[in-house]
Amino acid sequence: MYDLIGDIHGHADELVKLLKVLGYQKTQSVYEHPERKVIFLGDFIDRGPQIRKVLKIVRPMIEEGKALGVMGNHELNALAFHTEHRTRADAYLRSRSNKNILQLTDKHLSDAINWFGTLPMWLDLDGLRVIHACWDDKAIATIKSARPNDEEITTEFLHSACRKGNTLFNSVEIVLKGKEAALPKGEFFYDKDGHTQKNIRTRWYSPPEGQTYRKYALHSDEIAIDLPLAPSVIEAAVPYPSTAKPVFVGHYWLSANRPQVLADNVACVDYSVAKGGFLCAYRWNGEQKLSNDNFVWAGKDRT
Ligand SMILES: [Mn+2]
Q1: Which of 153, 178, 225, 271 gives the lowest tally of CB atoms within 10 Å of its CB?
Q2: How far, in Å, from the CA of 173 to the mean position of ligand 1?
Q3: Ligand 1 center to 202 CA (angstroms)
Q4: Stretch among 68-77, 111-120, 125-134, 205-214 having the lowest mean pLDDT
Q5: How far is the CA of 190 from the centre of ligand 1 (A)?
Q6: pTM for this prediction
Q7: Which residue ranges form the domains of the chain, and what is each CATH number?
C-alpha cells in the first residue's frame, strides 16, 4: 500500500520528520518501510532552502524501488530552463529572468535535470491514480502520444510543450497546473499573493451545473463572486467521474488546520509547507472512498 506525499519544495527537514511519522527508516542510504511505498506528488524543488537535500532523499528512494513519483510543474520548468531555444540566440525555453533564476540557484541542480526528464506525469495503478494537478483523460491521451511509454522527455517534447496555444502545451498545463475558467467580463479577484486574477482554478472533479463561480472555484475562500457559471464554462467541463478510481493530487497550496478530501475519490496532499503550512501525506490502504482520517502530517502542530 501507498503513502502519498505532497509538494516538498525544498523542505528536507519536514520530509524526514514526515517519513519518520509514517514509520519509514533509513537503512543503508534510503528510507524504506517493510510493507509500504511512498508516492511523491512532484514539486520537489524551488522555494525552500534544502533542494539538494530533498533530492538526495527522494531520488534514491525512487531509484531503489522504495517509492514512486510523478513530475510537478516545477520539474518541467527546470527542464525548460535548461533547454536552449532553437530560433532565439542565447535564449532558453524558460526565460532566465531574475524571478526564475532565484528559484533555481542551487548549483548542483543541473545534475538532477536529466532525472526530472525520466519522471512520469501520472500513475494509473491498481485502485488509485496519481497526478500533480488534474486527471483529464483527453489531456493524458495527448501527452501519451507525444511521450510513449513514459520515455525520457525529449527536446522535441519540450519545444512543443512550451509553445503556447498548441494542444500539447494545453494538455501539460491541465495535468501539471489544473483547469481554469474565465470569470465574466469585468470580474476579478485578488489571490493569496495579492495579484489580480481573471480566471478561477476549477473543481475539475465536480459537476458544474447549478454552481456559482465561488462554489466552483478550488480556492472558494478567495472568490466572492456568486454569479452562476456561464453556459460556456458548463459546456467545456468534463468532470472527473465520482465512480472512477480515487485520484491524488498536489499543487494547490491549500491552507487549513486539518487536511480534508476534496471529494470522496479526490484528495490533495499539498498543504503549503513552503508558505507556513505543513508537509502532508495520505496513508492509502486500498479504499475507494477516501477519508479525512487517513491524512498524516508533520510540522505545524505535529512536531
Ligand atoms: Mn505545482
Answers
A1: 225
A2: 11
A3: 15
A4: 111-120
A5: 19
A6: 0.93
A7: 2-176+242-299 (3.60.21.10)
